[in-house]
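Archive entry. Fields below.
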Amino acid sequence: MRAVVVYESMYGNTHLVADAIGAGLAAACKVSVVPVSHAVPAILADAELVVVGGPTHVHGMSRAATRKAAVEAANKPVSPLKVEADALGPGLRDWFGSLGHYPLKAAAFDTRMHGPAALTGRASKGVDRQLRAHGFDVVAEPESFLVTKQDRLEPQETTRAREWGAKLAAAIAPARAAGGQS
Ligand SMILES: Cc1cc2nc3c(=O)[nH]c(=O)nc-3n(C[C@H](O)[C@H](O)[C@H](O)COP(=O)(O)O)c2cc1C
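PREDICTED_STRUCTURE:
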């Protein structure tokens, strides 16, 4: 079985989470972890599971203006943040905008600030909605991984992401067994 993790990331946290989810999936699947800027539709061709996530910006998925603001914030002399090579885009919204219909299993995740989701918002809700609109069979509730006010992953979040990846792989394993696939 092959799984693909597609992620968007400005400051590297969602990238770390995507890598950890990929590590969790790797026990059961061949995994590709791909930044959204490189996620050409062909990478989904022989995948059985697609996991998609990005940072929460202004309560939802990023937009060009929020990515620009993120880069400007990191470029301030006092900022310790470094931006990912392709931080300015395209983002997940653009990716979904040009994506076709895919009857594959899928799940959504995000990174966001600590706090009630009703206050922080969460990009994974929008990702989940887009996955369903594009025909994906969503197999898990959207999941959030938390960053500190300094934009660093909270302790244990990569462990939790690895466990979540392993749980996703286990969740789709019974369906594969019933279908007689290897
Ligand atoms: C422009 C901008 C807007 C943001 N808006 C929110 C928000 O509405 N809710 C939230 O929880 N976090 C918000 N954040 C924090 C991001 O969620 C956080 O930077 C991100 O999860 C870090 O992931 P990354 O390192 O992969 O970019 C915002 C960050 C930026 C730069």
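CURATOR_NOTE: The chain has a mean pLDDT of 94.
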